[in-house]
Amino acid sequence: MSQFKLSNLIAATYTPLNADGRLNLQQVGPLVEHLLGSGVTGLYVCGSTGEGMSLSCEDRRSVTDAFVTAAAGRVPVIVQVGHNSLDDAKQLAAHAQQVGADAISATCPSYFKVGTVGGLVDSMAEVASGAPELPFYYYHIPMLTGSKIDMVPFLTEGVARIPNLVGLKYTDTALHEFQECFELQDGRFDVVWGCDEMLLGALATGAQAAIGSTYNIAAPLYARLIEAFEKGDLQEARRLQGLSIQMIRTINLYPFHPAMKAVLKMKGIDVGGCRLPQGKLTAEEAKSLQSKLQSIGFFDWS
């Protein structure tokens, strides 16, 4: 299991919803085909992008089933099972293993904050034990969980307590910590980058895989960025990262995930809006966003 590695671009998938906020699982198949057609090499389900924390456990199981079925073994499916209730998280992990997911991942509890490395290891050991046959990635996203625990001691101590711990989904901007985790114990851990607008910096520190929201709408752009970096054409890689930054800055003029879902609809994949408290863009906002994206050439180079 320690040899399990992710590679290239993994899309943090959106959860399709109807106008009333209920699941629209019929759209999972078209979304997966769109993503695979754009070149992504994995699916990260029910994370922040997929509104995992806004879904009931029953919904999360249904979404997991739908993505595993739609992927049909063509790419790895990683299921995010984190929950404020560790027992619920453990049960979600067990379900993911039962239905054929390839790996699990989890945020830490975020209402009662995890304040120590030991507390984080204990919590994640409980979750990961629900799916002992699947690789486990801790999802480090301090801006949402409020947990700023150093990932180096977590990995060092965690590997002794969590037999299926293989790495991290690292969604922070501390490249020095990311590099240290990546190089720890001769590269033992699979540390996957999670900030799309800083992918080039992560590649320079050794990243082999990245999980992100904007790979839903612009995976070919990032694939060209990776290709330019691997060829040593840093000028072109910086230019392409600059386009990514410009795209994300434009989308961030609106509530980000509702805006991303609106862009998917512009590309022919209707996944609805988001559940409250995020909601969805108004028709006027969506039209304004489309105009701004057209003005930066997004639909030509994305």
UniProtKB/TrEMBL annotation:
<dbReference type="GO" id="GO:0005737">
    <property type="term" value="C:cytoplasm"/>
</dbReference>
<feature type="binding site">
    <location>
        <position position="49"/>
    </location>
    <ligand>
        <name>pyruvate</name>
    </ligand>
</feature>
<keyword id="KW-0963">Cytoplasm</keyword>
<dbReference type="InterPro" id="IPR002220">
    <property type="entry name" value="DapA-like"/>
</dbReference>
<feature type="active site" description="Schiff-base intermediate with substrate">
    <location>
        <position position="169"/>
    </location>
</feature>
<comment type="similarity">
    <text>Belongs to the DapA family.</text>
</comment>
<dbReference type="Pfam" id="PF00701">
    <property type="entry name" value="DHDPS"/>
</dbReference>
<feature type="active site" description="Proton donor/acceptor">
    <location>
        <position position="139"/>
    </location>
</feature>
<keyword id="KW-0119">Carbohydrate metabolism</keyword>
<keyword id="KW-0456">Lyase</keyword>
<dbReference type="InterPro" id="IPR013785">
    <property type="entry name" value="Aldolase_TIM"/>
</dbReference>
<feature type="binding site">
    <location>
        <position position="211"/>
    </location>
    <ligand>
        <name>pyruvate</name>
    </ligand>
</feature>
<dbReference type="GO" id="GO:0008747">
    <property type="term" value="F:N-acetylneuraminate lyase activity"/>
</dbReference>
<protein>
    <submittedName>
        <fullName>N-acetylneuraminate lyase</fullName>
        <ecNumber>4.1.3.3</ecNumber>
    </submittedName>
</protein>
